[in-house]
Write a structure and sequence with these properties.
Largest sheet: 9 strands, mixed
Distance between the termini: 24 Å
Bound molecules: pyridoxal-5'-phosphate, 2-OXO-4-methylpentanoic acid
Order of helices and strands: EEEHEEEHHEEEHEEEEHEHEEEHE
Shape: globular
Length: 355
Amino acid sequence: MQEIKIVKAKTLKEKPDSTNLGFGKYFTDHMFMMEYTEGKGWENARIVPFDYIPIHPASTVLHYGAEIFEGMKAYKTKDGFQMFRPLENIRRMNDSAERLCLPALPEEFTLKALKELISLDYAWIPEKEGTSLYIRPFMFGNDESLGVHAVHRATFVVILSPVGNYYAEGLNPVKISIESEDVRAVRGGTGYAKCGGNYAASMRAGKRAAAKGFSQVLWLDGVERKYIEEVGAMNVMFKINGEIITPMLTGSVLPGITRKSCIEILREWGYKVTERLISVDELIGAAKDGTLEEAWGTGTAAVISPIGHLVYQDVDHVVADNKIGELAQRLYNELTGIQWGRVEDKRGWCVKVEK
Ligand code: PLP
Ligand code: COI
């Protein structure tokens, strides 16, 4: 595959205070870019100073939303940095690309591009407990014409952002509202793809929920509004009577990499983990009769986020006394331990880069 050209920034930006990073507010000095043209493939791979991207006013993405993205993290280690299961993200991006008729990425080359970009902006990886360097690869259709058809041109970009907690609550329990009006995705649609349109469709419910003090909404399926799907930026797991239940991947739920990793860890710990349809009535029933022992969300940005309140049709159900549940805490420790290099990575999940 092609070489990656590097154009370094002439002046470097001041780094933010790592005690107050929030999520996705600061960006590093460089970004990776390359362009695809049908018949030619990916070309012009380069790392350039972080900057605005000029775009044609008729570009496909601006009119028809041809956009996909990923979210992954790099963590500073004693002798360099490591990424958590990056090939899983690149493969999921290719699944999203297939759904949106965008071109596939070469897996190993994309991983190489990530390593080179992060190495160049290594000084931006924050060190404080709970922080990391968030990696945001994204791709958009860039045909300069208004016809509705599969794209012939696309742009792939990677930007980096030093981040702290996704939720202001950190590891403290969040308050989630179960949405019964809007839906996020339907089977046969784009729910399993990580495309911008899914998030655009979710914003109205998110805005209404935020105005009432909720962190995010929990989506129900788009057909019957009966089955639990996922939260805005995380998959969900429930501990009911000692068993872990998580919504099965029906096509309208994002196949989370944190979800997959937690399922593996929980099974190794001897828990029964079941991926199946779980109805909102069953969940609320378990909350009422006390068999719902814990609930948490899983995601790259959110890591493990305990759910302390589940509100459905204006009734508030407190989960695990609104405290961090024992299992959620244990999962958080194991997962972040592997990601930060403090717990042995016996499954070979991390890709290490020495500096
Ligand atoms: N569901 C949605 C809608 C998300 O945006 C995310 C975040 O990426 C997840 C689930 C969790 O996926 P992952 O664990 O791969 O980050
Ligand atoms: C992630 O967890 O990486 C996400 O993409 C969630 C996000 C939409 C902020």
